[in-house]
Amino acid sequence: MASVVAGKAAIACRLRRPAEGWRRTVGILLRSEPTRFAVSAFGLHVPGAAPGDPPDRIHVLAADALRQYLARTSDAHFALEWRRTVTVRRRIASVEIALLEFAGNGDLRSVTPLLGGAAGDAEDRARAEDAIVAAYNATRRMPEVERPGALRRAVDGRLRSDGASAEYARRLLSATCVSFEPLDRSHSVARFVPPQFHLRRSLGFGFLTIVMRTTTPASDVDVWVSAHHVGLDGVPLQELVSGLEREWGSDAAMTFPAADRDRPFIGPRACSVDGERAVEEALAFVEFAPVMALRRVVNARFAERLHAPATFGAVLAWMLAAEPEFAGVRIASTVDVAASNGYERDVDVVPLRPGDYATARDRWEDFVDFANEFNRLLALSRVRRSPLRAGMSTAGLLPAAVHAHVVRANPAALDDTFGSVCITIIRDAKVFVAPMTDLGLRHGFFAIGSTNLPAADGSRVAAVSIKGDAGSIAGHHAALRRAIARSATMAASLNSSDSPRPESERP
Q: What is the reported pTM?
């Protein structure tokens, strides 16, 4: 209370500005391995590589070209600090690459540095790299909240009498980690299965982990970029990857798998390590054309009553809420918030319970009320004035340890505040692997990329990644398919009628 009162008094007196609550919130709530998210790019042409080049040459060319690109990209210049109750990010002067080689069982075999400056003599480097490999393998099964500190202590213990090697090792521990894994192109859809990042972990303090896939004699690579949410949010990470696609060039003729019918493309499969929240992930390819069609019909039919056009996310949330798996839940939608007034770019959340808008009136009147409130909160989020933003800013006035204690003392309150299922959309993403939280979101997380990916059967699809508690998301794919099918029926019904449909057809 004293922290909050003193902080608000200082703000009122213009001695400080309101706290930036988002980065603090994710630093407390998103710390374990499955909270990381990833985006992808396919068929990128490695600068300087040619068909027939040996894999080792392609690996080094790709990693060095990536280092040069990231060095020019402001959003890549962060490293993580793991404090006792919160993870924070800090600006770094240069981006360095650690090229990791893994064994089939997940052990680290070697570290090859690609650094941006002087790195000492060969003997010091070799000693540090050996220490890192040994420390990584000794700690690689630990929960992520414990692992970076344990890894660094193990490295320091091995190098305590060697200052030059220890300094070099610390540089590597904060590097962007890149590894390669083979891909059998004879299976045309295998390339769309995300890497199992929890088996290819970072060196602890860099926030980016990148897996590239290539096959001999091809000289192109598929790139999967995993990020810790404290380091960077989803839309900026996609912009970083899109910039890499433009700079390297890519295979524009590729197609994606057709929409799944009976079961997801992959999963559910485990994506956490022992000692963390047990989380599974699944991936589906979905055709959202019926939802898009329903959105167009609704926006045209109710244009005079909608304060702004209903978004794709609002329509999808409304339809999902009618499925038994999501009945009565608060559904959160994420909002990319631009930098303004001295605050860096970040994210806000619009959490609404569609069931709160179900009244005795016609269902589409109810939807109009829901969509108008959704758009009101969306507009407030974009100018940093939403109720949730105010709450996060107030919590940001607390010392981090107190803030973390308050959150963990009542985890059920997180679902009331942030929602118990989240839908996040990155419209330019290919395959977008969902994040998760350490607490809350008991109904899981949907991450949706572009809805316009060309599929092998000529349709247009989106990759939908789902994460949630182990055993809880097996039915989510079927629920999503049912919601999409009902969207087609409702769009046709609205198109064929001049008056709203009866109460019995309420979604």
A: 0.94
